[in-house]
Amino acid sequence: MDWGVAIASGLASGVEFVEAFTIVLAVAAGRNWRSSLQGAVLAIVALAAIVAVFGVALLRYIPLDVLRTVVGVFLLLFGLKWLRKAILRQGGVLRMHDEASIFAHEVEQLKKGATDWEGLVTSFNGVLLEGLEVVFIVISLGTSMRAFGPAIGGAAVALLIVLIAGVALRSPLQKVPENTMKFAVGVMLTTFGTLWAGEGLGVHWWDADASAIWLLAGYILITWGAVAWVRARRMAVQPARAQASAAGGSN
Amino acid sequence: MRAISNFFGYVYHFLVDSPLLAILALAALAIAGLLSLIGAAAVAGWLLFVLVGGALGADLSRAMKPKATK
Q: Are A80 and B55 in contact (CB under 8 A)?
């Protein structure tokens, strides 16, 4: 047993699994579990098919940078869309969602067997990209060190650990208010979108994948600042509007 | 032709709530890509983050502008 390969594969794959699982969890919490898991399962099936067709030659045929750019742009646009709505809601410009009516709507949709396509596609993209990166890690380490068993074993252990942590996080996440969750999802998708699209376009991030932490912290700060600014701006605009309408009414 | 236009319309509404935000975000990515091409890949990351944050700020600023009343 080549422990060095197993540990290297486990650590590198673990980072990718955490990224994929973060997206699945975020989509599940922000949209619904059903669509998020459907997207993840479809991505795993697609990955299995890709690996079965290409095998080890995968490294030559899949342009990872192109895939990173496409998925990154998608996540960035989607994340910003969610973040914008969450900021405007938190700032009082858009109405907060009525949790009871959303719950009733979700139950109705589930009864009909409806799929939330936004959630499904986001989850699919995240899992497919990160899954492909894990496959690349395993193939690279496996072929270069001639140790496929330990490389696959290391990745499998990392997956198991991430899955256990994810299942443990599931119920605390369900207690978080909806708009707070939208914030978290928007910030995370924007972070990963920036990171991956940037990587695909040739940007050198300061700490490679660990730059996600700095980007996340930065986007959280921007979001807090934006909510405070929107609130202050709304307060400033509302009295002026009230005065204008009162003046208009008295004429 | 109609099916293609419907498809792109669907993709557009799927991804975009505010055209300004989407255009600014894509412009930020294009600038970062260009900087990477000319060898400034280390600066491109910082700039991309700042530009995406700026795009969000610019879009929110536009959304908060008082609209003209009749």
A: yes
* Facing residue for B49 by CB, picked from A88, A204, A218: A218
How confident is the model over B37-54, as pLDDT tens digits?
A: 998 888 898 899 999 999
Q: What is the pLDDT of residues A191-222, one digit of tens each?
A: 988 998 998 899 888 877 788 889 999 999 99
Domain residue spans of chain B: 17-70
Looking at the 3D structure of chain A, how many domains does it have? 1
Q: Which residues of B touch A230 (CB under 8 A)?
A: 60, 64
Name the least confident of A108-117, A146-155, A163-172: A108-117
Does residue A117 lie in a domain region? yes
